[in-house]
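Q: Make up one entry.
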Amino acid sequence: MKRMRTFLATALTVGLAGLLAPLVSPSPASAAWSSCPASEFCIFDNINFGGAYLRPALNTPSQWGNFTNANFNDRASSAVNKSGYRWCLYEHAYKGGKRLVFPPNTQISDFRRYGWNDRASSTAIC
């Protein structure tokens, strides 16, 4: 039963991301969005991929268990996943609380639409 709920939640997340992607795409001229390299996951502290940003590295997953360590706790406002991995932002440190899922090659330009602005405290591949 738990497996079925997890599958349905994942399917819903992936489906919604696919439907919403055209609505949250950045403008081609967005310099900050383009600063996120191919194959990376980038988290920005302003909407529309602006301001300071983090690029969590695949080889240092423990570093991203708590955004306080990076002076980024409760600051995330947009993100882009240009990687081939599914990344999650978590409401609390060390993957605690609710999560916001980013399937490969998705983006959200304004977390306010999802009630997630300035709420993320950790991230991981999920």
In short: The chain has one domain: 2-125. Residues 2-125 form a domain with the Gamma-B Crystallin; domain 1 fold (CATH 2.60.20.10).
